[in-house]
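Sample entry (143 residues):
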Amino acid sequence: MVSTKPYLIRAIHEWCTDEGFSPYIAVQVDEQTRVPREFVKDGQIVLNVGAEATHQLQIGNDEITFQARFNGASFPVAVPVSAVLAIYARENGQGMAFEAVPEHVDGEAVGAGETAHVAAGTETETDKPESPTRRGGHLTRVK
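Predicted structure, serialized as tokens:
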């Protein structure tokens, strides 16, 4: 049986796009996740997956892939759908959170600490907005 998670991710992404919002995903980074490691904090990263920030975005049933710029350099990103912790609109925090799957990064268990915020397709932001998972409220948690 195919998980409903990729379908929900695609639906929230489409809703964000239709409403003119910037869709962001929070990701638990593990050895299968291909992101610039210098932007990973506490085993997590937040990525802008909007049309302006990505090139060749594909949200498949098993993996999310796209090209993005990080500090001006192009980088091929690949995120297993199982590693997505949340998808939400940056502007209002509305979206959906998913059950975290315990993984290990470089031999250490991933904690539930603060996420690093990176807007793919733009320069790294120094004023990191709160993710909805940190400020509470707007996300619906799905197991």
